[in-house]
Structures are given as structure tokens and as C-alpha cells.
Automatic annotation (TrEMBL):
Residues 10-343 form the Uroporphyrinogen decarboxylase (URO-D) domain. GO terms for molecular function: uroporphyrinogen decarboxylase activity. GO terms for biological process: porphyrin-containing compound biosynthetic process. This is Uroporphyrinogen decarboxylase (URO-D). It comes from the Bacteria. Pfam families: URO-D.
Length: 364
């Protein structure tokens, strides 16, 4: 369990930060992903049909760790599945893509935007959102993690085919992105109507997957429309993109993104210096070699190092893992991550950081 106690709820902390008022510590969100099943004691597969199981896991995770966000999410394929993709459902692991919705561009017109109130597993998610909002929204910001339209478009026809189409058939890519966008907007509307905030996962917008040129040509138009749609609701949003993103940081800032969650392969000081004055930066502790495989002290030192690199970021910094944590990440390592922010408190100073980095708090 945690060695330290919070003096504010996550919601109180978020509101105080927005108003420029004093807070008790830096924001921290370990991003457990489907590891939340381990906290509530259910199988991951239960999330696919039991909204109570999904909601209970989100709620139990919030109450166990006190992270600065409660996220309803299971996998990257809920919208793609609702549009016809076939999904593999392990009993106790994360769902995966089995077969895209279509096998050829000649079938694009068969794709229809979803009805989120009826589409496959999405009603299960929406019901879980209602439960989460009802039970913990007075304590913590609650968000629906929505898969972005560019990423979902890949799952409609397959990653390899989509990659080839960007070179050979731009119009088909645009059509896939547009129908994907319409489904995404409908999902956003349904989640927002339940009182949820919105965050976005756009892993295939990564510069590791597509060039910045192709991002600007294909992803930026639909991602920008999604951000504007959310902004029109009076809401801000964050986005996580896996892998390298330095080639599109300024593009994302130009779109009006409020907060960017970066992968552990990204240089945090470079991100802060380049766009930290335009959006909040979140990240980026290594989810595998540090959070999953490291000792508590290795977790603590990695967190303190990231805080040192980014706590002065003009638009703010939140400590997070660089991507979703592996399901079996040790609970004590998650506690160590949360406690790194509690140990420092607020305001953070160079003296506090150097003193904390100079000592070992854990002996395992």
C-alpha cells in the first residue's frame, strides 16, 4: 500500500490546477489498461458482456491507487468490430483483431456508421460509463478512451492493405477515414451524453507507422475534425500516440489538442521544449522494462527523472506510463509510481528532486 496520503481528491486537484490554485502533488495516472481486472478480481473477458464487471474494475482501481483519472476502455477494436471486423476474445487477456471488416476497397460502400446504442459491445461500455459516473465522478475525472478515426480505419481493411493504399489509392483511404470518423463522432456523442470526458488513442498515427507526410495527408483532417467536435461540446481532450511522435508534435498543437501522452521512446525534454508551451505533456515511464520488470526503487527513480525533465512544462505535466501497463504489472510498482509524486508534493523544487534522487527509499 501507499506510504503517503493524498490531501485532495483527483477532481479537487484537477479543478485547482485549472484555476491556478495550490495543489498537493503533481497529477499521476499509471494507465493500468486491462490490468484493472486484477484489481477487482474478474477475468478480462467479462468486460465484453458485463458492464458491472467493467465498471467495478474501473472503480476498484480508482479507490486502490487514487490516480488522476478513471478511464473506461477495453481494447482498440470496439468501433471496428461494430462496423464488421471480427475480433479474437481470449478468456483472460486483451481482445485482438482477427479479421478486418472488408477485404477490398470495392466493398467500402458496405461500411456504415455505427449506432452506438446497439452496436456489438459498445452498449456494454456505455452502461459501464453510466455506473462509473454515478459512483465516482464526484471524486475523479471520468473519461471514455475513444479510438481515433485514423487508427480505426486501418482495422476496417487491414493494416498492411491500408499502408499500401496510402501510396496507391488516396481516395479509398479518404473514404475509409470518413466513415470511420462518422462512427467515432457518434461514439463520442454517446459517451459525452453519459457525462464522460473524452480521451483519444491514435496509435497508428505514430511516426513509427506512418510518415509525418502521410499523417498530414490522411490522419490530420479526420483527427482535427474529431478534436473540433469535442471542443464544440465545451470539452478539452488528451491523446495518446504510441512510438515516435516528434515529427507531428507541432501538427497536434496546431489542431488545438489540450494534452499529449507520449511513449517512453520519445525524448521528454525535447517534447517539453518544443510544444510544452502549447499543450500539457504526459508520460513517459517505460511500461515494460521499468513498471513491469523493474524493482520499486527503479520505478521510483524513473518517475523522479521524468518529473525532473518536465515539471516546469508551461502548460503542465502529468506523470504516466509511456503506454498501457502489462496486465501482470506488480501492484507494488504501481504504488511506487503514485508515491513518487506524493513524496515530492507541491511545489516541486530542484532541491527536493536532487534530495529525493540521492536516496533509496526501497530496499528490494
Amino acid at each position: 500500500m501507499s506510504q503517503f496520503k493524498d490531501l485532495m481528491t483527483p477532481l479537487e486537484r484537477a479543478r485547482a490546477m485549472s484555476a491556478g490554485q495550490p495543489v498537493d502533488r503533481l497529477q499521476c495516472n499509471p494507465n493500468l489498461s486491462n490490468g484493472i481486472a486484477r484489481i477487482s478480481g474478474c477475468r478480462i473477458s467479462e468486460f465484453n458482456h458485463d458492464p458491472r464487471a467493467l465498471a467495478d474494475a474501473v472503480i476498484a482501481t480508482h479507490r486502490r491507487f487514487g490516480g488522476d483519472g478513471a478511464k473506461v476502455f477495453t481494447d482498440l477494436f470496439t468501433v471496428a468490430e461494430a462496423m464488421g471486423a471480427k475480433i479474437k476474445f481470449p478468456d483472460d487477456d486483451t481482445a485482438d483483431l482477427l479479421e478486418p471488416a472488408i477485404d477490398d476497397v470495392s466493398r467500402i460502400d458496405e461500411l456504415e456508421p455505427i449506432d452506438p446504442e446497439k452496436a456489438c459491445r459498445i452498449p456494454t461500455h456505455l452502461k459501464a460509463m453510466e455506473m462509473v459516473v454515478d459512483e465516482i465522478s464526484s471524486e475523479v475525472p471520468c473519461t471514455a478512451l475513444v479510438v481515433g478515426p485514423f487508427t480505426t480505419a486501418f482495422f476496417l481493411i487491414g493494416v498492411e492493405k491500408m499502408t499500401r493504399l496510402m501510396v496507391r489509392d488516396p481516395q479509398s483511404v479518404d473514404r475509409l477515414c470518413q466513415v470511420s470518423l462518422e462512427s467515432t463522432l457518434r461514439y463520442v456523442d454517446a459517451a459525452a451524453s453519459r457525462g464522460m470526458g473524452i480521451s483519444i488513442a491514435e496509435p497508428l498515427s505514430s511516426c513509427t507507422v506512418v510518415s509525418p507526410k502521410h499523417f498530414r495527408r490522411y490522419a490530420a483532417p479526420v483527427v482535427g475534425k474529431l478534436l473540433n467536435h469535442i471542443k464544440d461540446k465545451g470539452m478539452g481532450t488528451s491523446m495518446h500516440i504510441c512510438g515516435k511522435t516528434d515529427g507531428i508534435w507541432e501538427d497536434l498543437a496546431d489542431m488545438g489538442l489540450n494534452a499529449l501522452s507520449i511513449d517512453n521512446v520519445v525524448p521528454l525534454p525535447g517534447c517539453v521544449s518544443k510544444v510544452g508551451d502549447r499543450m500539457k505533456i504526459m508520460g513517459k515511464v517505460d511500461p515494460s522494462s521499468v513498471m513491469f520488470a523493474g524493482t520499486r526503487e527503479e520505478v521510483r527513480k524513473a518517475c523522479l527523472s521524468d518529473i525532473r525533465d518536465a515539471y516546469r512544462s508551461p502548460k503542465g505535466f502529468a506523470l504516466m506510463s509511456g503506454c498501457g501497463l502489462p496486465v501482470e504489472t506488480p501492484i507494488r510498482n504501481i504504488d511506487a509510481m503514485m508515491d513518487a509524486t506524493r513524496e515530492l508534493g507541491w511545489p516541486i523544487t530542484e532541491e527536493k528532486l536532487e534530495k529525493a534522487l540521492a536516496i533509496d527509499r526501497y530496499d528490494d
